[in-house]
Design a protein that fits this description.
With about 280 residues, the protein is mainly β. It is built from two helices and 15 strands. The strands form two sheets. It has an eight-stranded antiparallel sheet with strand order 1-10-9-13-14-15-12-11, with no helix packed on it. Strands 6-5-2-3-4-8-7 form a seven-stranded antiparallel sheet, with helices on one face.
């Protein structure tokens, strides 16, 4: 049976399987009650309703690290409208109204300069460019510091080059725990933070890492709204930011990819942006 997959990179990733027209399949994710630096990024539609849009992680009380493609290049940031209002949720369930801070989509997010080329590379039919050539990373700046949440730490340069067998790798994000069929509606998303353990981590190049799919379901770990979710090394060091899907070998047709945060160029960009915006040195 043929499986047809449509991947949307307009800031979310959506799967459509012809063989799963009504019954979604669970992905190996568990609810997360521990990693309080991981946040949900919410958009607001034209009717004023907020919904989960992506994931991120606090690396400073005023800075959320996320994927670059989470940002928009135009003012039309709401579903069917031009609402530039967004929220960062710090609750275990993003729909908790009591644990949010507002931000502006146009003023408060800065994407890496590569992000535009990253997007364009998906439609390049010449074969001269590939997404793995570009950095897909963004920073969301909050107007007020969050002082009641822990922050996660950036890694040392090239730390993944010396990864040890006993190191623990854990992905955490607000991506839903199911693959979607053609009847998917946004209201199905429960807004809860989940974690997963990547298997078969590969360092594709100095900019990207990848994992194969879950060995039980033969499906990828990343799901809708996991864009910007961190990959932790030993619980609180961020070594990757989930960004995209890619083809993989059988039995898994797709694998999950993330930007390597341990790349010295990536680390320099993050710190330079924070220095320019907030006037401080992030160590």
């Amino acid at each position: 049976m043929k499986t047809k997959v449509i991947i949307y990179f307009s800031l979310t990733i959506l799967f459509t399987f012809q063989s799963l027209m009504s019954q979604p399949i669970s992905v190996a994710k568990t609810l997360d009650l521990t990693h309080h630096s991981v946040v949900a990024i919410l958009r607001v539609d034209s009717l004023g309703k907020a919904y989960v849009f992506a994931s991120g992680v606090l690396i400073h009380p005023q800075v959320v690290l996320t994927s670059g493609h989470v940002n928009f290049n135009s003012a039309k940031t709401g579903k069917g409208g031009c609402n530039t209002q967004g929220f960062v949720s710090f609750a275990e369930n993003a729909f908790n109204l009591d644990d949010r801070l507002p931000f502006d989509w146009l003023k408060d997010i800065e994407s890496h300069p590569d992000t535009s080329d990253f997007r364009k590379s998906f439609s390049d039919t010449t074969g001269r460019t590939d997404p793995s050539m570009f950095i897909d990373l963004g920073l969301l700046f909050l107007n007020h510091p969050v002082l009641n949440r822990p922050v996660s730490h950036l890694p040392k340069p090239n730390v993944l080059n010396d990864i040890k067998p006993d190191n623990v790798l854990l992905g955490v994000g607000f991506g839903y725990d199911k693959i979607y069929d053609s009847t998917f509606v946004e209201s199905l998303v429960d807004g809860k933070r989940r974690q997963w353990q990547p298997h078969d981590l590969s360092l594709f190049n100095d900019l990207w890492l990848s994992t194969q799919c879950d060995t039980i379901t033969n499906l990828p770990y990343i799901s809708i709204h996991d864009s910007g979710a961190p990959l932790f090394l030993d619980d609180n060091i961020i070594v990757g930011i989930w960004s995209r899907l890619n083809v993989a070998t059988k039995p898994c047709q797709y694998s999950s990819w993330g930007v390597r945060i341990d790349n010295p160029i990536v680390l320099a960009w993050i710190k330079d942006c924070i220095k320019k915006r907030l006037g401080l040195d992030l160590r």
